Amino acid sequence: MTLYHFGNVAALAVLPIYFLYKFSGLAEYGAYKCFQAGGTYMFTQLCKMLILTFFPETINSDPTGFNFIGECLRCSADLLDFIGLTFVLSKIPGKGHSKLLTAAVGWSTAEIILSKGLTLWRARGAEFSWIYTQKSLESNILLIITIAVTTLLWLWSRHDLNKKMMPFVTFLLVAIAFRNVWLDGFIYAMSLGPWSALTAKGLVAIFGFGLPTLYLYSSMAQSIGI
Questions:
Q1: How many CB atoms lie within 10 A of CB 10?
Q2: What's the gap between Cα 41 and its chain centre?
Q3: Taking the model in full, what pTM does it have?
């Protein structure tokens, strides 16, 4: 029964990425670039860990509540993810959605393995618990956010981007980078439960980040004929 539970939560976390890789045409390009993106993610996380060691007392001063300063510092370190994804995009040839999805799939796969893998592995020796299902759903939310960030960084780096779109792209990037400040702060202030918090994060990821990014990308794609 425990192995069945582990299989369910692992599939819930991994299958969306697999289907995205399989049915979006990325399999035709090979998996090398995805592995390269995953390797860049691991290096980026190592750099973030080194940076965060410079202010551990500030971050961990209030572990039971919402630490505004600590979250701001964490989010500042998370800006390294943007640098890492920009580097990955610069190393992937081609244009269009395949370039963006290759970077996002490789990055998200490494993120799930390193950040969620150990937690989900514990489900192998435990009875059914909703916490593992929640962690798997969080992985799907992070996948949406990663695709949005990758697309926004690609738009931000283009010289032919409409100047009227640049403020929206920048705003979305800043909102995503510091979402742990304002979104988690809202969740803490409203005292939302685990499922309510997960629902709020999912709605923000889809309607706050995903759909606006899709609109910006489609507008750009039509203008350059992708």
A1: 19
A2: 11
A3: 0.88
